[in-house]
Amino acid sequence: MTDFPILTVATFLPLAGAAIVLAAGGGGRARWIALATTLATLCVAAPLYGRFDRSASELQFVESVEWIPAWNVAYGMGVDGISLPFVLLTALLGVLCVGASWTAIRERPREFYASLLFAETAMLGLFVATNLLLFFVFWELTVVPLFLMIGVWGAAGRVYAALKFLLFTLSGSVLMLVGMIALHQTCGTLDFRELARAAPAKLSPAAQAWLFAAFLAAFAVKVPMFPVHTWLPDAHTEAPTAGSVILAGILLKMGAYGFLRVSLPVLPEGARLFLHPMLVVSAVAIVYGAYVTLVQTDFKRLIAYSSISHMGFVTLGIFTLDPRGVEGAILQMVNHGIVSAALFLLVGMVYERTHTREIADYGGLARPAPAWCTLLALFCLAASGMPGLNSFVGEFLVIGGAFRTRLWLGAMAIWGVALGTAYLVWLYWRVAMGRTHPALAGLRLELGARELATLAPLALLAVVLGLHPEGVLALLRAPVAQLLANGLPP
Amino acid sequence: MTGAPLADLELLVPELILVGMSLVLLLGTGRIREGSLAAAGTVIAAILAAAAAILGSPGPARTGFGGMVALDGYARFFKVLIAAALALTALLSVRSRDEERVPRAEYHSLLLLASTGMMLAVSALDLLSLYLGLELMTLSSCILVGIRVERPATNEAALKYFLLGSFASGLLLYGISLTYGVTGATDFASIASSISERGFGRGPLLLAGIGLLAGGLAFKIAAVPFHAWAPDAYQGASAPVAAFLASGSKAAGLAVLGRVALVAFGSDARLLSAVVAGLAALSILAGSVLALAQTDMKRLLAYSSIAHAGYALLGLIAGTAEGASATMTYAFFYVFMTLGTFGAVIALGERGERLDDYAGLAAQRPGTAALLVLFLLSLTGIPLTAGFVAKFVVIRSALRAGHVGLAILAVACSVVSAFVYMRVVVFMYMKESRQPAPSRAPAAVLAALAAAALVTVIGGLLPGSLARWATSP
Questions:
Q1: In this structure, are residues B349 and B438 in contact, taking their beta carbons and an 8 Å threshold?
Q2: What distance in Å separates the CA atoms of residue B237 and residue B97, rounded to the nearest whole number?
């Protein structure tokens, strides 16, 4: 079984599914084919977790085939403890996205599910790529299906949001292209491991700083970091539910993953020079993002803005360069992927019934939709860092790392947590409590079995990871230790 | 230097095949009523010419006709490319020629003659044979642009193309005569040795000659500031002719510029590189930005082709073999993605002209719309399409030459052009149609689209596949 190319199969299975959907997805078959494909992908990817060797920091399940000898670039795939959680998360969210779109997508379902599956291939490929070219290829490939999903199946402002998303993302990634070509020219290779060995010695600190800036342009837009976050509220809000789930659940993680995979190991001197600006910007994102979230009146936009604040914790943790802080940041990435995806699913389910996103149009949902409100409470508490639920551990580790780095950073992070609790609890109070809004009378608001099944895995994960964070942390210990030992200055 | 021996004709077999077919078509003018028959003849001639270029007289590079014509890897590469552009253009012409009252045999005969000129120009080793080839190409193209005589816009386009083309030819001839006056030679090898021996490197006359030569050639590839004819000519010409101008004649112009820059003036690489860098930067910037405001699809593609000429020139700045090979790769993939884009425009028929008319096409013609998206993504430079590979190699070449600013300008402008191309996608996929679906495109057009798509995808999946063939002069 060792020769079975499990990563390649998992990555390209959705693409094959997309082809089948396009070829034979007429007459309502598209969603069934998409469901079967995403389930099969999850089944292929899930055993990775069990068979993964947690003590090794090296890449595992490695595949390598000659691809472009002229450029000294191979087709290489592999996972380590940092990428494995995201592979599994992507495979899981792929299934849930189909569940979320089951009745919501009525127009051109074939193209929709094909886009969704194509996006899944691109995201999986990004996390398992072992060289920068392949990473870049998948990075760019995620943009196209998301552009279509937002622009074709989105809400009223969809075209504007889609173009804004596209232009912001491309502006960053073209600079990454220049940086990648410059790296290729200096080091003669694009393999992550070889780059990490060769680049720090071959590049002067100034060159590393310029390259760091080039990659920062791409990663910062994707995370998104303050002040290039403005595409996010539009894109998340206008996208269909599945698009929002993919954006919040996976796409935002790609930027932070890029820091961990490229910026820190390959350009340690550049990272050192940018360390303080990055910490400051992260702290600003946490507090500023939280304040902006507080004043939102649109349900979906509120969830979208909360991502800015929560991703601020991630970049803060990464750039503390403290082992616990980095592990916490990665755990926070996973947790945010679970929680924000669940919140967008919840918004999407209720929006499908009420067709309004204004918080003022809701109220007192606890009586007509108890299961929905219970789950909303669970995920709001999880997002605000309630002990016993998943986000608590990640945020705790990040804040610890921040306090060890600078006192005021820790203080900012704590302030962000306090604000986060405020806007989430207030949101819950406005939506679920009080008298039922008269406009909602007569609607069937309670969740159906399919919707409960879509949310159940995420609820389960939120509780399990809250009680047993070792499930993820054990994967991270060895690769993070190696990442920080690799010449990174304290 | 007596009369060329008959054996030298072997170097020109591809050209002879094209001329032969052109004569056959002319002789049969009265009998050929079916557009598809003339197109079939052209495609066969193109395939034979490509085969002759690949298989004929193998072995090391040869020269003939008193050193005026070469048959080397560089010439072979571009002859195959030109033959491919010719074949695809002939296929794309099937529909529009039948609808408009255009003499079919003459039309295809002119296509063949223009391609002959291009092939001659890319194998020229002498400024005079170069000029001959380019003039044959320009004059034939000029008639092709104006072949729909009953349309005023077409007449205007042809006249503009002719006048500006004559002006450019004048520049070219002036440049040739100044170069001859300074170096005493018109063949590339003697010019190169004369420059390196006597060190005219900074002489004002030679610099003027080089500037004029570059200007004349920049006209052929529609590089800024010699681009003004392109939007009008593309808009006024029928779509297949515009496609041919954008692909074949641009590739030939790039090939000629590459050989002149590397062989004739290569001994002092800095001579031309400043001029080329300026042309590239202006073309990329102006082409991308001006395309933003276009509402006519052919005009939009004209400005985009101006920008792409700039990208292709990035490879020639370094003046190295590697850079020339990058430009060759760019030209190759560019020809196929451009022909594909125009092919989709042609397949959409009357709905393909104005950008507004693209609204809702994705629902009415999903296959053609999807192919158009593929070509537009390739023009944008998204990975796994040939356009990405092309962009990658030319930007690498610019970085190698130390032009970091130019590389950043190039990628920044590619974001601008991404907006231009994706606007077409927005119309097709994100707007509702108020018009009936376009009629079905003929099989020949679909075959051309499929061929272009195949090259675009394979080139993107296997970027190394072309490297072996793209050998610089």
A1: yes
A2: 12
Check residue B352 and give its pLDDT.
86
C-alpha Rg value of chain B to the nearest Å: 21
Mean pLDDT, residues B299-328: 92
Which amino acid belongs to residue A282?
A: S
The structure tokens listed for B264 are: 């004739």
Shortest Cα distance from B416 to chain A (angstroms)? Answer: 8
Query: Looking at CA atoms only, how far is residue B396 from chain A in angstroms?
Result: 6
Min mean pLDDT across A178-182, A441-445, B281-285 is at A441-445
Taking an 8 Å cut-off on Cβ atoms, the answer to whether B418 and A136 are in contact is: no
DSSP assignment of A245-261 equals HHIIIIIHHHHHHHIII
Cβ pair A293, A302 in contact under 8 A: yes
What distance in Å separates the CA atoms of residue A65 and residue A12, rounded to the nearest whole number?
Answer: 15
CB contact under 8 A, B411 and A177: yes
Say yes or no: B464 contacts chain A, CB-CB below 8 A.
Answer: yes
> In this complex, do A166 and B422 lie within 8 Å of one another by their Cβ atoms?
yes
Distance from CA of B82 to the nearest CA of A (A): 25
Instruction: Pick the residue from chain A with its C-alpha nearest to B374.
Output: A144
Q: How far is B289 from chain A (nearest CA, A)?
A: 15
Peptide bond into A227 cis (omega under 30): yes
Are A390 and A335 a contacting pair, CB within 8 Å? yes
Q: Could you tell me how many CB contacts below 8 A there are between chain A and chain B?
A: 82
pLDDT at B269: 65
Cβ pair B383:A159 closer than 8 A? no
pLDDT value for B272: 79
Residue B268, helix vs strand vs coil: helix
Q: Among A86, A79, A41, which Cα is nearest to A61's?
A: A79
Q: What stretches of B146-228 show up as alpha helix (H) in DSSP?
A: 152-183, 188-198, 204-221
pLDDT category at B200 given cuts 50, 70, 90 is low
Q: What are A324's two structure tokens?
A: 């616990």
| Distance (Å, whole) CA B220 – CA B59 | 31
Q: What are phi and psi of B224, to 5 degrees?
A: -65, 135
Confidence grade of residue A487 (pLDDT, cut at 50, 70, 90): low
Between helix B386-400 and helix B297-317 the angle, nearest 10°, is 40
Across-strand partners of A73? A68
CA atoms within 13 A on the CB side of A288: 13
Q: Tell me the H-state helices in A157-222.
A: 158-187, 192-202, 205-222
State the pLDDT confidence band at A71, using cuts at 50, 70 and 90: confident
Q: Show residues of chain A in contact with B412, CB under 8 Å.
A: 171, 174
Residues from chain B that touch A152, judged by Cβ atoms under 8 A, are: 429-430
Q: Which residue out of B376, B380, B411, B457 would a mutagenesis test of the A interface target, given it has the greatest number of A Cβ atoms within 10 Å?
A: B411
| Nearest chain B CA: its distance from A12 CA (Å) | 14
Element (H, E) at B70: strand B69-71
State pTM to two decimals.
0.94
Contact yes or no for A9/A42 (Cβ under 8 A): no
SS3 B385: coil
Question: What tokens appear for B71 in the block?
Answer: 């048959």
For position A200, what pLDDT does the model report?
Answer: 85
Token digits of residue B295: 């509402």
Residues in chain B, how many? 473
Contacts of B419 in chain A (CB under 8 A): 163, 166-167
Nearest to B426 among A68, A111, A151 (CB): A151
Query: Has residue A316 got a pLDDT over 70?
Result: yes
Helix, strand, coil percentages in chain A from 3-state DSSP, rounded to 5:
75, 5, 20
Nearest to B414 among A159, A174, A181 (CB): A174
- A356: left (phi > 0), else alpha (psi -120 to 50), else beta? beta
